[in-house]
Amino acid sequence: MYVCLCHAVSDKKIRQLAVDQGVTDIRGIKKCTALGTQCGRCVRQAKEILEQVKPIELQQAS
């Protein structure tokens, strides 16, 4: 599903950045994509996705 319609950033891309590149916050997502740079409506949804990914990432690390 698209999280950022303005720049076509999907939830899959956000999860991929979190797991593969260790991006854990919105600032990191913004560095890798244009998420939140136009209307900003997507930032809340992106934060929720990152919160869901953090526990998964911690399980994989151990």
Automatic annotation (TrEMBL):
<comment type="similarity">
    <text>Belongs to the Bfd family.</text>
</comment>
<dbReference type="InterPro" id="IPR007419">
    <property type="entry name" value="BFD-like_2Fe2S-bd_dom"/>
</dbReference>
<dbReference type="Pfam" id="PF04324">
    <property type="entry name" value="Fer2_BFD"/>
</dbReference>
<dbReference type="InterPro" id="IPR041854">
    <property type="entry name" value="BFD-like_2Fe2S-bd_dom_sf"/>
</dbReference>
<keyword id="KW-0001">2Fe-2S</keyword>
<keyword id="KW-0411">Iron-sulfur</keyword>
<dbReference type="GO" id="GO:0046872">
    <property type="term" value="F:metal ion binding"/>
</dbReference>
<keyword id="KW-0249">Electron transport</keyword>
<protein>
    <recommendedName>
        <fullName>Bacterioferritin-associated ferredoxin</fullName>
    </recommendedName>
</protein>
<dbReference type="GO" id="GO:0051537">
    <property type="term" value="F:2 iron, 2 sulfur cluster binding"/>
</dbReference>
<feature type="domain" description="BFD-like [2Fe-2S]-binding">
    <location>
        <begin position="2"/>
        <end position="52"/>
    </location>
</feature>
<dbReference type="InterPro" id="IPR052371">
    <property type="entry name" value="BFD-associated_ferredoxin"/>
</dbReference>
<keyword id="KW-0408">Iron</keyword>
<keyword id="KW-0813">Transport</keyword>
<keyword id="KW-0479">Metal-binding</keyword>
